[in-house]
Amino acid sequence: MLRDINVHKKDPYLHWQELEIRLVSQENWNAAVAAETRRGQIAGLYVDKKEILTGTIDSMSRDEVEKKLQDLKEQYSIETTFEEVKELENKS
Q1: What is the pLDDT of residue 48?
Q2: 16 within 8 A of 38, measured Cβ to Cβ
C-alpha cells in the first residue's frame, strides 16, 4: 500500500486513471466522470478562467448609459417586416 502511495505522489495522473477505471467497472458513473475531469485538469486540458468586471452602470454618466443601450439595441435587434394575416373562414 505504501508503495502505491509513493507511486501516486510522483504521478497523480496515473492515480486518477486507475480510480476512473475502478469506478467505471463498479458502474459509479458520476464519480468516474469526476475522476476523468480531475485527470484532464492535471493534464492541463481544462482551464479555469474567471473574469472580474469592475465597471458598473453606477459609474457611467447618463450619456454613456444611453450610448451603451443604443449600441446593445443595434447589436441584438432583429430587423424584419411584418405582414398582416387575416384568418380564413371555416368552410366546413
Answers
A1: 78
A2: yes
Q: What are phi and psi of 53, to 5 degrees?
A: -95, 125
Task: Say how far apart CA 33 and CA 25 lie, in whole Å.
Answer: 13
> C-alpha grid cell for residue 26?
463498479
Distance of alpha carbon 54 from alpha carbon 34, whole angstroms? 33
For residue 50, report the phi and psi dihedrals to the nearest 5 degrees. -125, 135
Distance of CA 30 to the CA centre of its chain: 18
What is the spatial distance between Cα 31 and Cα 37, in angstroms, rounded to a whole number? 10
Q: Is the pTM of this model over 0.85?
A: no
